[in-house]
Request: fold
Amino acid sequence: QVQLVESGGELVQAGGSLRLSCAASGRTSSTYGMGWFRRAPGKEREFVAGISASGGVTSVALSVKGRFTISRDNAKNTVYLQMNILKPEDTAVYYCAARVTAYGGVPNSDRSYTYWGQGTQVTVSS
Reply:
């Protein structure tokens, strides 16, 4: 089993920045790619960004491209999501997810991820 714990979410004004962290514990040697998803009120969960096991390959959603960056520190078993120029439409619960396979690159489907954190709330005020 792998446990994922997100942190860093809070209330921020539009135009501001936040960095989310996702700490993995347990059988972390069994995880490969990692991803960030979000669910806004009344909407379905959507892909935000993903990163390969080595960190050499990343993918971000078009809606956050140029504003959000995903990175990882494998020595600390932690994945980060740097969020800049935040907009009110970025308001959502942000979830960290982990894969257990190296196949398929950096997928944007939540069905490709096995382990999930409990989420952290990000609220962007206008």
Remarks:
- The mean pLDDT is 95.
